[in-house]
TrEMBL record:
It comes from the Eukaryota. The lineage of its organism: Eukaryota, Viridiplantae, Streptophyta, Embryophyta, Tracheophyta. GO terms for biological process: GPI anchor biosynthetic process. It is found in: Endoplasmic reticulum membrane. Belongs to the DPM3 family. InterPro entries: DPM3 (IPR013174). This is Dolichol-phosphate mannosyltransferase subunit 3. Stabilizer subunit of the dolichol-phosphate mannose (DPM) synthase complex; tethers catalytic subunit to the ER.
Length: 89
């Protein structure tokens, strides 16, 4: 719930800044009307950056990989026992 309140507060603050820029005419109107679009594009770029950084820092788990391979072998043996063709490997 606290996260939603933070997001809503940020949106209200950004909306207030945007409306004040529209009212004061500090920036040309053609730029001011595009600010929400720039914000959405910037948010998308930030999201892609965070996903990319997370993928670059993703740790490998050799022990878990061995356990997964054992599970695959066990599942293949189980399915072969039931008469299911599971391929060459």
């Amino acid at each position: 719930m606290k996260h939603i309140v933070k997001i809503m507060a940020l949106l209200v603050a950004l909306s207030a800044v945007w409306i004040s820029l529209l009212q004061m005419s500090v920036l040309p109107k053609s730029y001011t009307w595009l600010l929400p679009l720039y914000f959405i594009v910037s948010l998308g770029c930030y999201g892609l950056l965070m996903v990319g950084a997370g993928l670059m820092q993703f740790r490998t788990c050799p022990h878990e990989a061995i356990l997964l391979q054992q599970d695959v072998v066990e599942a293949k043996e189980f399915l072969k026992g039931k008469g299911v063709d599971v391929g060459v490997n």
